[in-house]
Amino acid sequence: MYLDYWQLTTQPFEAVTDRGALYPCEAHEGALSKLRYAIENRRGAAALAGPAGVGKTMLVQMLRGSLGERWSPFVHVVFPQMSGPELLAYVAEQFGAPPADAPRHTVDESIRRIEFVLRQNADHGRHAVVAVDEAHLLEDCGTLETLRLLLNFESAGRPTLTLLLVGQMGLIPALGRLPSLDERVSVKTLLRSLTAAETAAYVRHRLAAAGAQREPFTADALRALHELSHGIPRQINRLADLALVVGFAERLPQISAQDIEAVSDELVSLAA
């Protein structure tokens, strides 16, 4: 709707599928390196925690795309709030395990199916990854303990998979309350929000990737974006995108801090 007005070729603040459009934030690059280390060194488990909207799921997708065939199968569980037996059965299915025998989807049956795949996988020199989003929600239903069972699979004394637990900040204390799992987590990394300078660089990077030929936001607007979004990329995207819509509708030459504040106030009032 606003592309021609702002001289853009694509919408700059939509979900990114092209790695070239990703902003190379220091925090994201550091977290990605730590997770790659855990997987490529065949550690049993790793944890990634951070506030909602900082890009944890995107980071897992980047990680998956950066790993070669040797690190497969890669299972990404994005809706993990299942019972223990359901979650194990889901992992077995995603691993491509042979069809289940009766009684179907018991814990023992799923464990045997997973073990079969992992043994064959290890024989072919491959290492599996199971990434679980929203893992901070799993403590109350006991599923974290179920996931720990996956770490019992070994070949030649080394794990045959890496369990990657991804969640909000409550994940770290939740692991501390489950020592049998926590002691197997060899890498813990936190994904922080963006600084003011990073927020400005992030917005400019996304605009450049969208073919921007002009600067839609004033310097004060970029500072306001950081302050009102708290440096959370998801919130930055929402505010910046709506500001572009409003700027186009009102034929603004540039978007100011006052315009960002007005957009933020409108979003707050709608959410009230």
Notes on the protein architecture:
The protein is α/β, with parallel strands linked by helices and 272 residues long. The chain has two domains: 3-9 and 194-271, Helicase, Ruva Protein, domain 3 (Orthogonal Bundle); 26-190, Rossmann fold, CATH 3.40.50.300. It has twelve helices and seven strands. The chain has a five-stranded parallel sheet, covered by helices on one side. A two-stranded antiparallel sheet has the order 4-5. Helix 10 (219-229) crosses helix 11. The chain starts with a helix and ends with a helix.
Topology readout:
Elements: H1 3-6, H2 26-40, E1 45-49, H3 56-66, E2 74-77, H4 84-94, H5 107-123, E3 128-132, H6 143-148, E4 154-155, E5 158-159, E6 161-167, H7 171-176, H8 179-182, E7 185-190, H9 196-209, H10 219-229, H11 233-249, H12 257-271
Parallel strand pairs: 1-6, 1-7, 2-3, 3-6
Antiparallel strand pairs: 4-5
Task: Give a quick summary of the entry.
By secondary structure, this protein is α/β, with parallel strands linked by helices.
Largest sheet: 5 strands, parallel
Structure classification: alpha/beta
- Written as H for each helix and E for each strand, in order along the chain, the element string is HHEHEHHEHEEEHHEHHHH
Radius of gyration: 22 Å
> Runs with pLDDT <50, length 5+?
none
Give descriptors for this structure.
5-stranded parallel β-sheet, 272 residues, single chain, 12 helices, two-stranded antiparallel sheet, Rossmann fold, Helicase, Ruva Protein, domain 3, 7 strands, 11% strand, alpha/beta, 2 domains, elongated
